[in-house]
Amino acid sequence: MGINEEETLTATLIDPESLDSPNPAYQKGETQESKCRDAWAAILFYAQLIAVCCVCGILGVPAVRRNAGGADNLVEGRTTDYTGLIYVTLIAAASSFALSTISLTLMTTCPKFLIQLSLLFSLLLSLLITATSFYYQQYIAGAFGILFFLLSCCYACCVWRRIPFAAANLNTGLTAVKRNGGVFVTSVWITVVSFGYLMVWMVAMVGVYDATAAAAAGGGNVEGNNVQPSWG
């Protein structure tokens, strides 16, 4: 590349220091009209949210309270306790929050290493799934595991040399996050809301399962501690 070409490319670059005090004549895009562009999707989302909350309050919460501690009010001899399921959900949510915090810390300190680690982890995970499938004589699953492992290897080989560029892009985005603390606060708030949303779904699922088990116990066959539903 000649000197003139380098000067041309350099002239088109944006000085990072000028971003804090841009030229008054600079036009930053166009003002967009404030409106809901996916009204049908919003209606569907709020409809299912209201339905899930209703199921959670009508069926889920009474089921959790009634069967807390292994109490049995459905079928004699069958013990049902949903607190373990709730605890698993709580642990999973807390673990995801902790892992997200660790991932953000790693991204801000060593983005290149994090990208390499994610690629190697996908390779290791696909290889582990393949070995487990063959160990339990699930040959079809093992064949798919080999296929995904080979595809992951090809993908890693193709993008490995582009990792520095990807790390630079990631570092640029993280720099913007560091300079705007509200982005981090928003991400934490979204995580908390997602956790509450997950808990509502889980309690609603418990209520539906409990009501289904009660209906099956009343009209189906009960053997020991198992409930056999009647299909007709």
Could you characterize what this model shows?
The chain has helices at 3-11, 39-66, 83-109, 111-135, 139-159, 163-179, 181-219; strands at 221-223, 226-228. A two-stranded antiparallel sheet has the order 1-2. The chain starts with a helix and ends with a strand. It contains 7 helices and 2 strands; from the N terminus they run H-H-H-H-H-H-H-E-E. The longest helix is centred in the C-terminal third of the chain and has 39 residues, at 181-219. The chain has 232 residues and is an all-alpha fold. Mean pLDDT is 76; it is low at 71-77 and 220-232. Strand 1 and strand 2 form a beta hairpin.
Defining traits:
mainly alpha, single chain, disordered C terminus, two-stranded antiparallel sheet, extended, 7 helices, 232 residues
Topology of helices and strands:
Layout: H1 3-11, H2 39-66, H3 83-109, H4 111-135, H5 139-159, H6 163-179, H7 181-219, E1 221-223, E2 226-228
Helix pairs in contact: 2-7, 3-4, 3-7, 4-5, 4-6
User: Structural class, judged by helices and strands?
Assistant: mainly alpha
Radius of gyration: 27 Å
Helical amount among residues, as a percent range?
over 70%
Q: Mean of residue pLDDT?
A: 76
N-to-C SSE string, H for helix and E for strand:
HHHHHHHEE
Order of strands, widest sheet:
1-2
Bulk shape:
extended
Structure annotation, total helices: 7
User: In percent, how much strand structure appears in the residues?
Assistant: under 5%
Describe the main β-sheet briefly.
2 strands, antiparallel
How many runs of DSSP E, i.e. beta strands? 2
**Distance between the terminal alpha carbons, to the nearest Å?**
79 Å
Oligomer: single chain
Low-pLDDT runs of 5+ residues are 71-77, 220-232
